[in-house]
Structures are given as C-alpha cells and as structure tokens.
Amino acid sequence: MTALLISGCAVLGLAIGSFLNVVIWRVPRDESVVSPPSACPQCGHAIRPRDNVPVLSWLLLRGKCRDCAAPVSSRYPLVEAGTAVLFAATAAWFGLSWELPAFLYLAAIAIALAMIDLDVHRLPDKIVLPSYAVGGVLLAAASLLNGDPGQLLRAAIGLASLWLLYFLLALIYPGGMGFGDVKLAGVLGLYLAWLGWAELLVGGFLGFVLGGVVGAALMAFKRAGRKSKIPFGPFMLAGAYAGIVLGQPIAGWYLGTLGL
User: Cα 172 to the chain's mean position, in Å?
Assistant: First the structure.
C-alpha cells in the first residue's frame, strides 16, 4: 500500500507540476491560468496534448518546439519532476492519513511560490491568501477526523505568532522583509504549529538561518552585495520543510543538552 501511495502521489505530482508551470508564468503577469491554452512563445502554435505529457514530451522532443524547433527551457521538466519528488516524499512522510491532502497542497504552492519569488521577487496574493482558507479547511478536517481538535487551537496560535513576528520585522527593517513574506509566514505558521510546537520553532528559525547562510555565501563569492535584494520566500519554505522533518529531533537534542 505504501509503495502504491507514493507512486500514485508521484504521478499526481507530475500532472500538478505541469499545471504549476502555467501558474509560475502567468500569475505574476495577471494572466488567466485557464485560457488560452499553452502555446509556443516563439511561433504561437498551441501545444498538442501529446506534446504536453510531463517530462516525457520534453525528452522525446529533445527540448524543442515541434513546429519551429525553438528551444524549450529545461525548467519545465525540472518543475514537473521536482513536484513529483516532493509529492512522493510527502506521501512517504505522512502516509495514508487525513492530513496528507493538506500537505500535498502545501507542496504544490511551495513549488509555485519559490519559483515565482526567484523570478520576480514577489509572493502573489492570488496564491498565498487562498492558502489560508484551503490549508485551514484541510487541516481542520484532518484534526476532527483524527479526533484531535486541539491541533486547531495550536495551529491558530502558530499562524498568528509567525505572522506577527514577520510583521514586526517588516516594520523594523522594511528593506529586508516584504509583506509578501509576512503573509506567507502566517500560512507556514498554520501548518507547522498544526504538527507541533517543535516544528513551528525549528521551522521558523531555520528559514532565517538558511537565508543568512546563503546570503553570506553569495556576498563572499561576490555574487551579491549588501544592498542586493535576495528573495526570502524560498528560504522560508525550505526552513518550514526542514522543521517538518527535523523539528522533533532538533528540539529533543536541544532539550537533552539542557538536561530536560
């Protein structure tokens, strides 16, 4: 059952990843993700269904448009494959559980938001704000079906606390923290605190650690300066995922060093 679940989620991830490529390109440009159908940006020919199979079509076409032979960015299959891997990893971590749909949704928006933030240094409200409702409903359903409604109160506290922390940082240092980050913080606080306090504390903290380490490395190799704007969303998301996986072990280790 586990192998079947992971495989099924990986296939679902490929399909979702194909759609996310559309989201990543069109949402920052305020374009519809439904119409018109995807087309080659060079020759304008609509992409045929047989040429829209995730990863496989790009490989068979050798990364070129069937009609005009214009190169097609390798980012498209990488997003599709990356989504499949993250979906499979999510299924392996949570198993067949009531919370799995909520965390698959988180995986999908994490891919989209990370790529958009890298591209245009924005975390679009069209993705972030609905995630409060979608994530909240899915996690609430999981809590009730798991017989643990107390998770909802903890999740609400996590949402408010991480949002408030980022809001204060944005007020204190507006050049280093955008309000898109503030809005995303609330979503991540919701998910992390639903899992536990350890996940919230570790996941929230590691976002700053990863951002600081990468920023310092970029400056050391002269790839960025002190005034360079580095998108923080990907580090927030990476920190959150590290918190999901490592929150309990890190918290246990830290408490052990204190003799608690």
Answer: 26
CB 182 within 8 A of CB 135: no
191-207: pLDDT as tens digits = 999 999 999 999 999 99
As to burial, measured by CB atoms within 10 angstroms (0-12 exposed, 13-18 middle, 19+ buried), residue 27 is: buried
Which tokens belong to 120? 């245009």
Kindly report each contact of residues 205-210 with a partner whose C-beta sits within 8 Å and lies 24 or more positions away, as own/partner: 205/239, 206/238, 206/239, 206/242, 206/243, 206/246, 207/232, 207/235, 207/236, 207/237, 207/238, 207/239, 207/240, 208/235, 208/239, 209/239, 210/235, 210/238, 210/239, 210/242
Q: What distance in Å separates the CA atoms of residue 77 and residue 56, rounded to the nearest whole number?
A: 8
Please report, for residues 198, 256, 259, the alpha-carbon distance to residue 249 in angstroms, rounded to integers and kept in the order given: 9, 10, 15
What pLDDT was estimated at residue 132?
98
pLDDT in tens, 5-56: 999 999 999 999 999 999 999 999 999 998 888 888 888 788 888 888 999 9
Say whether pLDDT at 239 is over 80: yes
Q: What is the pLDDT of residues 74-121, one digit of tens each?
A: 999 999 999 999 999 999 999 999 999 999 999 999 999 999 999 999
10, 50, 194 from 6: Cα distances, Å: 6, 25, 23
